């Protein structure tokens, strides 16, 4: 089943118009929720970001937060007790092709669930990465459909045999991954780029920040350079689908010892405890 404009429908009932502004202009936003054994992880945080993205590009939707939340629960009920992801996309709707917003249009919403196993190999053994120039626009805090620079960077990583591309601005500021946030560890302190227009405010990164506070691991949001990145003791990417995956090489060079480090391991263990708390019926924030 799919969620289509507020209703659960079969796939054959979904028809996207060629007049949809998401198709013409990428005029829309999306959100990806992690499903663990049929439960949405950090649901309210994802909804917060969804509504923030809608507000940033001035899309109004006819469903209240409570209505939308209930619809997601209904969609989730059709998925069963398995691991996966819930993808939700909203566009400004159908209108004659013109750059300026239409005088009137109705938002178009599509949501679906699909199976997605935990990336155990990446979590346990780490991933290889490359660096790429960050050529994205200056509103990366909006989770918009405009992902061409991200896909080009991800493709460059794939062609190099790597899992992720770490993005670096022209001023030598390391921002994040093409589809993830980035954290490094130096002398026991975690460093990551501050939230703002240059990165997406990651839900999983916020979970890691909360965990670091609970474990009394120093956590600092500040800009850092490529040189600092390459000199890190540990590095990891965080995302809804990748959780907290250790980075063991960057551009072919080992990070630290070239194996997942002790700080990363502590964070991973605590993250999994949060997931277990969700499945046990407790708040994952507890």
Strand content: 25-35%
Quick one: biggest sheet?
9 strands, mixed
CA distance, first residue to last residue? 33 Å
Summed up, the helix count is 8
> Which structural category do the helix and sheet elements fall into?
alpha+beta
Mean pLDDT: 97
pLDDT under 50 segments (min length 5)?
none
What is the C-alpha radius of gyration, as a whole number of Å? 19 Å
Please trace the helix and strand order, writing H or E for each element.
EEHEEHHEEHEHEEEEHEHEEEH
Shape descriptor: globular
List the helices and strands and how they pair.
Layout: E1 2-4, E2 7-9, H1 21-25, E3 28-36, E4 39-41, H2 43-56, H3 65-77, E5 84-91, E6 108-115, H4 120-125, E7 127-133, H5 148-159, E8 164-168, E9 174-177, E10 181-186, E11 189-192, H6 203-214, E12 219-221, H7 226-230, E13 234-239, E14 243-250, E15 253-254, H8 262-279
Parallel strand pairs: 7-8, 7-14, 11-12
Antiparallel strand pairs: 1-2, 1-6, 3-4, 3-5, 5-6, 8-9, 10-11, 10-13, 13-14, 14-15
Structure explained in plain terms:
- The protein is of the alpha+beta class.
- Helices cover 30% and strands 28% of the residues.
- It has 8 helices and 15 strands.
- The strands form 2 sheets. Strands 7, 8, 9, 10, 11, 12, 13, 14 and 15 form a 9-stranded mixed sheet that branches.
- A hairpin with a 2-residue loop joins strand 14 and strand 15.
- The longest helix has 18 residues.
- The radius of gyration is 19 Å and the shape is globular.
- The mean pLDDT is 97.
């Amino acid at each position: 089943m799919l969620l289509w404009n507020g209703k659960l429908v079969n796939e054959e009932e979904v028809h996207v118009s060629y007049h949809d502004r998401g198709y013409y202009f990428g005029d829309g936003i999306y959100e990806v929720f992690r499903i663990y054994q049929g439960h949405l992880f950090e649901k309210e945080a994802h909804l917060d970001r969804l509504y923030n993205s809608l507000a940033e590009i001035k899309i109004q939707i006819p469903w209240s937060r409570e209505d939308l939340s209930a619809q997601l629960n209904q969609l989730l009920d059709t998925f069963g007790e398995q691991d996966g992801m819930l993808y939700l996309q909203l566009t400004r709707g159908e209108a004659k092709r013109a750059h300026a917003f239409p005088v009137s249009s109705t938002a178009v919403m599509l949501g679906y669930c699909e199976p997605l196993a935990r990336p155990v190999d990446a979590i346990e053994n780490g991933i290889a990465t490359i660096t790429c120039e960050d050529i994205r626009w200056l509103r990366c805090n909006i989770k918009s459909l405009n992902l061409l620079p991200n896909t080009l960077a991800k493709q460059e990583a794939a062609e190099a045999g790597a899992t992720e591309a770490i993005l670096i601005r022209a001023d030598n500021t390391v921002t994040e991954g093409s589809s993830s946030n980035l954290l490094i560890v130096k002398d026991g302190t975690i460093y990551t780029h501050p939230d703002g227009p240059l990165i997406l405010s990651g839900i999983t990164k916020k979970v890691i920040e909360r965990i670091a506070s609970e474990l009394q691991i120093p956590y600092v949001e500040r800009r850092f350079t490529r040189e600092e990145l390459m000199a890190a003791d540990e590095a990891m990417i965080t995302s809804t689908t990748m959780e907290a995956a250790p980075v063991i090489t960057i551009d072919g060079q080992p990070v630290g010892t070239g194996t997942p480090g002790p700080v990363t391991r502590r964070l991973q263990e605590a993250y999994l405890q949060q997931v277990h708390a969700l499945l046990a019926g407790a708040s994952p924030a507890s």
